[in-house]
Specification:
By secondary structure, the protein is mainly beta. It is built from 5 helices and 37 strands. Helices cover about 5% and strands about 55% of the residues. A hairpin with a 2-residue loop joins strand 19 (about 360-380) and strand 20.
C-alpha cells in the first residue's frame, strides 16, 4: 500500500513540475557573446595560479603542449634525459648523465637506487591559487595495472592555500617477479598574514615503494638468442623468483619566517626556522635462497645464516632544525646567519655477530653547523653566496657561489662553484644482512668534492659546461667476481677523479616542422675504473605540429631517438638497493626509437606513444644494466587534465 501511494505521489508531483517547466521558454545551449563575456569575467587570469618550492622558485600553471611537456610525461613527471630505465614502470634507473647526481653534506640513509622516485623536501611544491585547481595524470603501464597522479589545490582565503595529492602505480611487468607497486601521498599548506609579516609552508608526505626483485637474467643467452619462445618474457629464467624489497617513508616538514619590524621598509629584520622529521624503513624479503642454472645450484648472494625466509629490516630516523636571523636591505641585498642541527639514527632490530665480527644495532650521527648566506638581486643580476662549517669534531664543510645575469627574456647566463666535504651515507659504514658477505662496520673518510659549472641559454643554443674533482669517493663493487654471484661490498677510492661534461641543445623550427636535439659529452680521468659513464649521450626529436578542427585541437606528432655509446654500466643489487661498479660487461651502442602522437583540447593533453619501435626489428642486444634488459616495444597512452574552477 505504501509503495502504491509513493508511486501516485511521484506521478502527481512530476506532472505538476513538468507543467510549470513547460510554461517557460527553453534555454538555448548556444552561448551568446554576452554569456561568453560573463564567463570570462568570472575566470581568474592564468598568471594567478602559482606553483613554488620551499626556496621560492615560482612557476605559473601551464596547460600548453610542447615537446618539453612530452618529455615530462612519465612516472617521474620530469625530463628523463640521461636516465636509463629498467623494463618495468616503477623500477630503478641507471644514471647516464652524472651532472644530475645529487648529494648533501649530511649522511643519507643509503639504498639510493630505491629512491629513484622518492620526493625529497625540496621536491615538494606549494600552491597559491585564486580558485580550486586540479591536475590529473594518467598513463598505462606494461601489464596489469595503471599509473595515476591526482592533485587538488584550493584556498580558504587569499592567505591560506592547501593541496592534497596522491600518485599510485601498479605494474606487473613482463618478466618473472617484477611487480612494482608504489604510492606517494602529499599534503601541503601555506599561510601568510595580510601584511606579509609572517609566512609558513608545511607539508606531510607518506611514500612507499614495493618491487619484486628478480636479480636479473639467469641465462642471458636465452634473451639474446631471439627465439620466438622467449618473446614471452615470462619464459626467461631469472636469478630470483620470490624476493622483494620495500621502502617506506613519512615526513613532517615546515618552514616559517617572521619579520620583526611591523611594516615592510628599506631595511627589514626577520627570524626564520625550518624543521624536518623523517622516518624511513627498508626491508628485503626472500623465501627461497637457491637458484639452479644449467644444473648448477647456488645462492645468488653467497652463504646465509638461515636456509630460507630472509626478512631483513633497516630503520632510519632524521631530525633537522635550522634557525637564524636575516637582514634585508632593498639596495644591498639580504644577509642570513643560521645554525643548523642534524641528527639521524640508522639501525637494525638487534646486535648481530657474523664470523666473529660484531655488527652494532644502530649508528647515530649528531652534527651542528654554523652558516651564512648572502643574496643579491638588482636589475639583471642575481647572486648567492653560501658558507657553512661544522661545529665540533665533525669535518662537514659546504661552500657555494652562484651568479646569474639576464640579458632579456630568452637570454641569460649562470655560473656556479661548489665545494663540500660530505659525511658518508649510513649503509657504507654499517650494514646487517642474513647474507654473511653483506655485513660490515667501516670507518671511511669524508668525500670531498669541487665543481665549476657554467650555463648559457640563448635563442640560438643552450649549452652548459661542468668540471668537477672528487677525492675519497665511496662506491660499491663486487671484488670477488664469483660466477653467478653478487658479493658486493663498499670501498673508498683514495685517488682523484676528474670529470668533464659538455651539453648542448638546440630546437630548430621551419613552418609546422621542428627538430629538437641534445648531445652530452662526458670525460672521466681516473687511475681506477670507479666512475663509469658513456662518452656520448644524445636525444633527437623530429616532429610536426598543427591546429586541427578549426583550431579546436592542437596536435604534435613525430619520433624521438635516444642513444648512448657503450660503457661498463653499473649493475643493481637488491639487498643494498644500490648500483655497484663492474668491469665485466659493456652495454649501450643501440638506438631507441619512440613514435608519438600528442594532442591538446582546451586544458587536456592527450598522449599516444609507441615506445622502442625498433625493438621489433633488431637483435636482443639492448640492456638497461649488465644483468637486466631494456624495455621491449609497447604502445602506451594517457592524458594530463587540468581544471580551473
Amino acid at each position: 500500500m505504501r509503495l502504491l501511494f509513493l508511486a501516485v505521489f511521484i506521478c502527481i508531483t512530476t506532472g505538476a513540475f513538468s507543467q510549470q517547466i513547460g510554461d517557460k521558454p527553453p534555454k538555448s545551449m548556444i552561448k551568446t557573446a554576452e554569456d561568453k563575456a560573463k564567463e570570462a569575467a568570472r575566470k581568474a587570469p592564468i598568471a594567478w595560479y602559482k606553483i613554488y618550492s620551499v626556496e621560492k622558485d615560482t612557476v605559473i600553471a601551464d596547460t600548453s603542449l610542447t615537446l618539453q611537456r612530452y618529455y615530462q610525461y612519465n612516472y617521474l613527471r620530469k625530463d628523463r634525459f640521461g636516465h636509463l630505465q629498467y623494463p618495468n614502470e616503477g623500477q630503478v634507473f641507471n644514471l647516464l648523465d652524472y651532472t644530475q647526481a645529487k648529494s648533501s653534506v649530511f649522511p643519507a640513509m643509503g639504498y639510493q637506487a630505491k629512491h629513484y622516485a622518492f620526493l625529497e623536501a625540496d621536491d615538494i611544491r606549494y600552491y597559491h591559487v585564486p580558485t580550486p585547481y586540479s591536475d590529473i595524470y594518467f598513463k598505462t603501464v606494461m601489464e596489469q595495472g595503471q599509473n595515476v597522479d591526482a592533485l587538488v589545490a584550493l584556498n580558504t582565503s587569499k592567505n591560506f592555500n592547501i593541496s592534497i595529492a596522491f600518485k599510485g602505480l601498479r605494474s606487473l611487468g613482463r618478466y618473472t617477479n617484477q611487480l612494482a607497486s608504489t604510492g606517494n601521498f602529499r599534503l601541503t599548506s601555506s599561510y601568510k598574514t595580510t601584511s606579509g609579516r609572517y609566512a609558513i609552508n608545511f607539508h606531510y608526505t607518506g611514500q612507499d615503494f614495493l618491487n619484486g626483485e628478480n636479480g636479473g637474467l639467469a641465462n642471458p643467452a636465452e634473451f639474446e638468442s631471439g627465439e620466438a619462445i622467449f618473446n614471452n618474457r615470462a619464459r626467461l629464467q631469472m636469478m630470483l623468483t620470490d624476493a622483494q624489497s620495500v621502502l617506506k617513508s613519512k615526513r613532517f616538514f615546515f618552514d616559517h619566517a617572521f619579520r620583526v619590524n611591523p611594516n615592510d621598509s628599506q631595511n627589514n629584520l626577520s627570524v626564520f626556522h625550518r624543521f624536518n622529521y623523517e622516518h624511513k624503513f627498508f626491508e628485503f624479503n626472500q623465501r627461497t635462497l637457491t637458484t639452479t642454472v644449467d644444473g648448477v645450484t647456488f645462492n645468488r648472494f653467497g652463504d646465509a645464516v638461515v636456509n630460507a625466509n630472509i626478512n631483513d629490516h633497516t630503520n632510519y630516523d632524521k631530525f633537522y632544525n635550522r634557525a637564524g636571523i636575516a637582514y634585508e636591505n632593498k639596495s644591498l641585498g639580504t644577509v642570513r646567519f643560521y645554525i643548523e642541527h642534524f641528527f639521524n639514527r640508522f639501525g637494525f632490530q638487534s646486535e648481530r655477530t657474523i664470523n666473529s665480527l660484531v655488527i652494532p644495532r644502530k649508528r647515530d650521527v649528531n652534527v651542528a653547523t654554523l652558516g651564512g648566506v648572502y643574496e643579491y638581486r638588482k636589475g639583471n643580476w642575481r647572486g648567492t653566496a653560501t658558507l657553512a662549517n661544522a661545529l665540533g669534531t665533525e669535518t662537514v664543510r659546504y661552500a657555494e657561489a652562484k651568479a646569474a645575469y639576464t640579458f632579456n627574456a630568452r637570454t641569460h647566463v649562470n655560473f656556479q662553484y661548489t665545494n663540500q666535504s660530505k659525511l658518508p651515507n649510513n649503509n657504507f659504514l654499517l650494514h646487517q644482512s642474513s647474507y654473511e658477505a653483506y655485513n660490515w662496520v667501516n670507518n671511511f673518510r669524508n668525500e670531498k668534492y669541487n665543481a665549476f659549472q657554467f650555463e648559457a641559454q640563448t635563442p640560438w643554443l643552450n649549452a652548459s659546461v661542468q668540471w668537477s674533482n672528487s677525492t675519497d669517493k665511496l662506491f660499491f663493487t663486487d671484488v670477488q667476481n664469483v660466477a653467478n654471484q653478487q658479493l658486493v661490498t663498499p670501498q673508498q677510492f683514495s685517488g682523484s677523479i676528474n670529470y668533464l661534461a659538455v651539453k648542448v641543445a638546440r630546437e630548430f623550427r621551419y613552418k609546422r616542422f621542428g627538430l629538437d636535439a641534445t648531445v652530452l659529452y662526458q670525460n672521466v680521468t681516473q687511475s681506477q675504473a670507479i666512475l663509469n659513464l658513456p662518452e656520448f649521450t644524445a636525444r633527437g626529436s623530429l616532429y610536426y605540429q598543427d591546429h586541427w578542427f578549426k583550431k579546436a585541437m592542437f596536435i604534435q606528432t613525430g619520433a624521438t631517438v635516444n642513444y648512448f655509446t657503450s660503457y661498463f654500466a653499473d649493475d643493481y643489487n637488491p639487498i643494498l638497493g644500490e648500483f655497484f661498479v663492474q668491469t665485466q660487461k659493456k652495454i649501450g651502442d643501440f638506438p631507441v626509437v619512440d613514435v608519438f602522437f600528442n594532442a591538446r583540447v582546451r586544458q587536456t593533453r592527450i598522449f599516444l606513444i609507441a615506445e622502442h619501435v625498433n625493438g621489433l626489428l633488431r637483435n636482443n642486444d639492448f640492456y638497461a644494466s649488465p644483468s637486466m634488459p631494456y624495455r621491449d616495444f609497447i604502445i602506451r597512452f594517457g592524458l594530463v587534465w587540468n581544471f580551473f574552477q
